[in-house]
Amino acid sequence: MSKSSQHRSTRIRTFVYCVLGFHAVVALIAPFLPLMPTDKQDSGAMLQGFSSTHWLGTDALGRDVLSRALHGGRPSLVIAILATALSAVIGIALGSLAALAGGWVDEALSRLIDFLLALPTLILLLLIASFFGHDPFILIVTLGFMYAAPIARVARASTQVLLARDFVRVARLQGGRGVNILLGEVLPNVWRVVFTEIAMQFTWIILAFSSLSFLGLGASPPTPEWGLMIAEARSYMTINPTAVIAPIVMLASLVLAVQALVDRE
Amino acid sequence: MQCDGSESAFRDNGMKNLARRALFTIGAFVSLAVLSFLGIDALPGDGCTALLGRFGTEAKIAECRVEHNLNDPVVVRLGSWASDVVQGDLGYSIKRDEQVAQIVLPRIRNTAMLALVAAVMAFPTAIVAGLLIGRFPRSRIGRAINTLGVVAMTLPEFVIATILWLVFSIWIPIFPGVTVVPSNATFMELLPHIWMPALTLAAVVFAHSMRTMKAGVTTIQAMPFVESARLRGTKERVTLLRHILPAALPPVVNTIAVDAAWLLTGTFVTEAIFNYRGLGRLTIDAISDRDTAVILPIVLFSLGAYLTMSLIADTVVRLLDPRLRQHQS
Amino acid sequence: MNAILQFDHVCVEARDGNRVVTPILDSVDLTVKAGEKFGIVGGSGSGKSTLLRIAAGVLSPGLHHTSGSVSTAGVSMLTVAPKVRQQMYGSSVALVAQSLGEALTSHLTVRAHFRDTLGRDVSDETILSSLDDAGLDGAKYLNRFPHQISGGERQRVLLALALVRSPSLLLLDEPTSALDVGIAADVLATIVRLQESRGFALVCVSHDIGVIGRVCDRVAVMSRGRIVEHGATRQVLAAPTDPYTRSLLASMPRLDMRIREPHARVQQPVVVVRDLTVIRSGSSRALDSINVEVGKGEVVGVIGESGSGKSTLLSVLCGLVPSTSGSIHNAHGFDLTTPLRDRPASVLSEIQMVFQNPDDSLNPVRTVEQSVARYTHANREEVLAALDAVELSEQFSTRRPSEMSGGEKQRVAIARALLAHPQLLLLDEVTSALDVTVQASVVKMLASVQVATGMSMVIVSHDIALIASFADRLIVLRNGQVVEQGSVGDVIDSPSDPYTQHLVKLAKTNSF
Fold first, then answer.
1. pTM for this one?
2. What number is the ipTM of this complex?
3. Do A185 and C353 touch (CB under 8 A)?
4. Which pick of B188, C43, C353, C430 has the fewest CB atoms within 10 Å?
């Protein structure tokens, strides 16, 4: 790699980390920042552009856009992080144990993974979100199971490759037992590949939840959530674009940063 | 392992394999169909509550149920529904008072048209772009298209749709923003309304396939056989098209298959935004109306589309790699 | 001056993005005349492959040419435009690279390969005559895919493809290192024949001086990016002047050289194999009714080519692969066909194995100490003692695999096996992936370990000279069957089986 592209690569990397850090910090401390309350409607100042009181303007109900944009990631991030963690645990366990067990157990578990992959995830999400109200717990569990399958597939493939390697054979010869080998020899070596997949699933889950909110099936008003904000502000795009651009920038920058991060790995 | 190169071995194994996969796919479809029926049946409410909603009294709902045989045990209803479907009758929607087939089939046609237009726009360009960018990564155009692709992949569908709507309907008014033709309009009538949703879908799908192709090309061209071909004097164009491309295609085929299935079944948001009367729009409406009779065939169509695309992809991949034709791996 | 290849003070270095600079070629001067057969021999890291690739104008990413000039067929390869270079490939100069991976395109037939090089209208006759020249007979090859033909046949196809447009310079990088001994000899003979009939200049790079000796008239010896000695092959091999060349020649295994004194047969068996048959996937018999015994303190060498079943034999002995029929018992009568997970710990530790590929034997995330002690539960003193026995200093205990060479990694693998205190050590081609000088020192170390501990060993190799210098008894395997068994002296001096005779003859012609 030439020196200039090496430098550019490092600069991009630093920039990506900054963006991620920004999102993490904002999501955590937004309620403690000196911002306007997210649901205070200022009926005298609706759909205004930049001003000294409302730095990014107001939306159709007179609410401060900046404050809502900074708070808007919290619902999706909470759900996405929990759902991703669940799917990672299920996926890694399912995939690696299938590869370790081999034989009919592997066949059966592979069929299960195929079955989960065939499920129409979005329709299922719509159904569950629609029928079971906006209960975040059910949503997290559903997302966790549905998005576990791609992780399981990657985990299984990587584990199979690892188990054929000589140092695993030696471990067996020296008395290492199944799960012990899995944890000690296999997982530290497959982690990097699996982590990439997990990060990708994390971005899909965020996008899925935002889409649900956009359709009115995820977060419900007046909660500030990026997808919901975009849906609400879309019709007034020509009057005050900041109300729709701010959540778009927040959402896009987060997803872009995560994908850029794993792409470099 | 030494392999015999005879033609008949190929035919035997290839056919057997295909038959086995097809059988498995059908089996999977049937079992998933049954599961879907049971699953949707288990959801709270049924066709009668959908029709009468909040205004229905206990008595009216009970009466409705008797009328439509909704009190029969699950297995009986499953059986009669299954036999109906096999004979081509997709059932009756209580809420809309219409045969389900009338409701669903025109929508499938519309979405299929949309999917086709989007696919034709996206897939061939993605393959060509991915191939060229992978082979010449340092060109400026290549990097620009790559970045565009990355951005398209990370923006949610509704954002892309919104941006396109802003650009092509408001700022430069070429296309109509909202579809106003009824669902059983002809192809020509639909055509002006297809462009924007198709462009949106194409943008989403293009990025995915292009990235996969680029990654494949990058990996393949580092392999010894590519350099070996070049150092023998093989011309650049021949190396690219006959050596690199077929080797890099298999992962892209899988990506295209998954995305093609998505184009047919997952386009709710885009159809909602442009009010395009396709299957996606119907899905959202049916779900918010709780019309289970309509939801069920949609789910089945979704399953069928995914399984079929997977089967086709698998077959194509096997055809591309001679090694897979004879060995049963 | 009819030099077809000329290197003048060529310097190449490798640059890491983080400014680490490693010299790869250090002021290399080389002249190859038209029609000459020139060989370059050296270990890994000597720069020989880089040199060959530069002769073709190929500079791998990360390598920088800092000074000197390269002229191939009159063209300055490193400075000329890429299009001009591309024109030369196949017509003036052709490179056949090391084909450890796939050098042929797996989805194209042999005929398609020729079409791509010569144009779509090339006739089948032209292709067939080209294949015939390279020693492949028959139209059956035209429609075959690379995976349908053997390694030796693939190498011949590559030769045919390289020579089909009659270049004046052929560059070969390790042409036979992936091939069995017998097949390698045939391919080398073909190369010599082709050169003599067509008259092109040949530059052949190999780590194996036997290959060079067979093919080339002149040779250059490389070490660490420099040519340390060069001259007529016969001269250099008979009377080397450079110390590196001397150590290289001394490290070559010879049939008449003993690293370890053979012991007379000891009656007390450590493992007894009766009528063992192993059928792996498919219906082919990897092992067919094998009868073998290994005595206490005995070293048994197993010779065979690829497909002979030698690796399977080791895998079954230690329990990694299940047997189909027959029996294996240890000294106490324990049935060694029981699966690994059902064996008690004491039985498990009795038999240990070291594998061929040094890059695969160690977990990349672990240090040496962690790797060797994890399952053997050795304490620090025991770890250091084991490292000492394999001639590694204490500082290796904290190193990771990425910080060690192939030879060092194999020593660690051996130390790990020793820490289980086995009675029988199985060695599967453990030095095949190492440079010949490193191989010699590892084998010497193994000999001293064996003498010190008195453990039995089964050592598998394709190199009969290597095993004959080390083992007490030899077993020759072919297609899963034992074709000959006996003491080393008997088997080498008077082999009874024709296959063994063939192998011994090949080994004798290889040595100088």
1. 0.84
2. 0.84
3. no
4. B188
